[in-house]
Amino acid sequence: EAVRFPQALAATAPVFKRLQLGTVAKATVIDIGGFTADYLSLRYGAADWASCDSLENGVILLYNRIRSKASSDLDVLLEETDVDAILLQGQGSSYGEEVAALVEYQAQEFVNDMLGALRERQLDLRTGRVIFVGGGACLLRRQIEASGKVAHLVFVEDVNANAKGFEYLYRCTVTGA
Fold this sequence. Notes:
Helix 2 packs across helix 4. The protein is 46% helix and 18% strand. It has 7 helices and 5 strands, in the order αβββαααβααβα.
């Protein structure tokens, strides 16, 4: 049988020991990428394949929502880099209060929708550890923390965690370590 490593699992590999995932009864890994938000539940560090899937909640959808809303409501043309600057670097003041408020509100709604979709899939993010990975998780960290829908949060802030994790898991598979 082929060995499979979903991105969400691979991203935790470099920090698995530090997070002591092998001793945690329940953890959920959520990888927010460009097109999807992938999730995987872990039970004492082992993947629960029955609780592994993707939602069409990637940040590209968020960018499109924000750009469309800013254009229609404020007659402002935003680029992805503008949205990143407001969300990541708190540069809302250089875009004006209305634009910054629109971006922040849309980002919070996006996070609330995504977390609601996970809850509908029977994932209780208020119990167990929840590990967020991927560039989208870094971008939306403030909104995730502010949602009040997730307890015991951990963020893997290395946006290259997936690549490093796949490399690590490949080496372990090849060497049998």
